[in-house]
Amino acid sequence: MSFLYRFIPEYRSKRPGALQKGGRLQVMTLEERSPSNFNLDLAEPRQRFGVVWRDVNPEEPHEDAEDLGAVRFNRLEGAFFKGGVFWFDDTAGGEKRLGQVCRYFPKSKKLELFYEGTEANKMESPDNITITPWGDLWFCEDGDGQNRVMGITPEGNVYKFANNRVPVPGGDPNNPEFSELAGPTFSPDGRTFFVNIQNPGITYAIWGPFKRFSERRQRQMAVAAPPKELAPRVSGELAEVAQRYGMSNLEAAAYDRLGAQLT
Length: 263
Known about the structure:
Blueprint: E1 5-9, E2 23-30, E3 48-56, H1 61-67, E4 76-82, E5 85-90, E6 100-105, E7 110-116, E8 126-131, E9 137-141, E10 148-152, E11 158-163, E12 181-186, E13 193-197, E14 202-206, H2 215-220, H3 236-244, H4 249-257
Antiparallel strand pairs: 1-2, 2-3, 3-7, 4-5, 5-6, 6-7, 8-9, 9-10, 10-11, 12-13, 13-14
């Protein structure tokens, strides 16, 4: 069982040693369910919850988290922050224990279950994660089989980028074992993808070329869509205009409501 914590430093200075001056350790709880210790296994994909951060004793954080009704996860692993969104995964989360990917929006204090594994060929034990330059989420697997680097689009479609085909040294050649992939990250210019194989200890630099997508794709991953019943109705004509200008339907609806001419 895992909980998600954050540390609020007493001093926000970027000088070395500032964090050692103390602060508050807090655990994630849900405002509408606390103190029920809600398990995210019970959530539906794209379901969102309001978050309340509560102080815990740094000497007994686990006990305090249970007493405060903190959100329960199974085994938290990878994390990544981009575009104002904090991404993290639960390697054993979900009804089938294949894994879950969540995102937290600090400004609105909303937690969303972004994706849950239901088939091993799409997700099995997600570990380290990263956001690609074009806005997809990539995750490395740490499962029992041949681990992969997998991608998820903003729409929730899953695809395979790479397989680990390097067997662990010294194993049975007739029944090879494959170590986990780890540390996925892109260079600042977005042209090179780095990833490691834990055993035998190899780092790869992959140049692609990687397919480029519009800024709209990146914005989609940093926006929590409203519930369907609250979303504006968008005509087919307005949807076509949105696609022409590389906008989401919600952005086009906002411009239309303000009286802007989109033709």
